[in-house]
Amino acid sequence: MSKETEAANYYSKDFEWNQLRLEIETDPSFLYHLLPFIDHQNVEKTSKDHQNVEKTSKDSVEDSQAWNKFHTCHSTGKFFKERRYLLKEFPELASCRDYSKVLEVGCGNGSTALPILRAKKNIVIYACDCSSEALDRAKENIAAANLISSEHRFCPFLCDVSTSGFPKWLACSSCQEDAVSCNKGDFYKPFCLENSCCIGGVDLVTMIFTLSALPHNRMPIAIRECFSVLKPGGMLLFRDYGLYDMTMLRFDPEQRVGYREYMRSDGTRSYFFSLESTRDLFASAGFTELELEYCCVRSTNRRNGKIMRRVWVHGKFQKPKCSQS
């Protein structure tokens, strides 16, 4: 089977999510995944603002360190798998206008950026990650692909959007104020695309298996930041772990750090989204939902022949377009 055929077949719907849900929720061995989560370590703590700020800062540093360690341990070529399915699932990436600007949030080792750069010869990708090791791997993988002008079309930068926000050069305050006025129906002033203060916002944002790596309480911040740097009418393309994915069911009870939220032994996090939780997060930030569904895939482990049922949430969300006054 060719890689192209494999990509087309692998990301189809192989089973019904509701059938899986019924099976999991009636199995006593999975009961602990369904129970409310009580953080016993924080029950006695107060909720003073400065304590919350200190905890968020500490968590952010620990998250970055964990992902640095992860990418250091998985720096070989075997770990890098180009996400060829992206253009099929998100054709907007290939059909966008020339010289569009894409912001990839959580670029990892470049497995998302590379197929986009291949498909669109003049697209520019601004790629951020909280891990400096991830950015190094991404730059190496993009360079190794020998794409035309990739050094000018792939722009990586270090950023934890859930704590520090995006740098001002993505979209300055003036651009964001213009976008707010535009959405309220006021006279629209064009983004300052040619000004030196910023690039004037982006046309598309990708969040591919990124949001789940954040603590749940910091997800709304990250999504609001994405909304702020998108141009009116711009889209956010989302794919992440879905509720009852096989990786969720493998976590032990002691690895729970929140409701549907887990921490691996290496310190990296994973959250599993339902359609409802995803919808609430993006609607709260101001996005309009265009597509939202479970992607249910059955695959077979070649070594042991075991069938694996994977669940992802696939979504497309749009920043409201300008209304004409």
Question: Care to describe what's here?
Answer:
It is a single chain. By secondary structure, the chain is an alpha/beta fold. The protein has one domain (3-34, 83-318): Vaccinia Virus protein VP39 (Rossmann fold), CATH 3.40.50. 35% of the residues lie in helices and 21% in strands. The protein has helices at residues 3-10, 17-25, 31-34, 49-73, 86-89, 92-95, 113-119, 132-144, 150-153, 173-183, 219-229, 246-249, 275-284; strands at residues 101-105, 124-129, 154-158, 202-208, 230-241, 256-258, 261-263, 269-271, 288-300, 307-318. A seven-stranded mixed beta sheet has the order 3-2-1-4-5-10-9, sandwiched between helices. The chain has a three-stranded antiparallel beta sheet with strand order 6-7-8, with no helix packed on it. A hairpin with a 2-residue loop joins strand 6 (256-258) and strand 7. The protein is globular. It comes from Cinchona calisaya. Belongs to the methyltransferase superfamily. METL family. Its EC number is 2.1.1.-. It is an enzyme of class 2 (transferase). This is tRNA N(3)-methylcytidine methyltransferase.
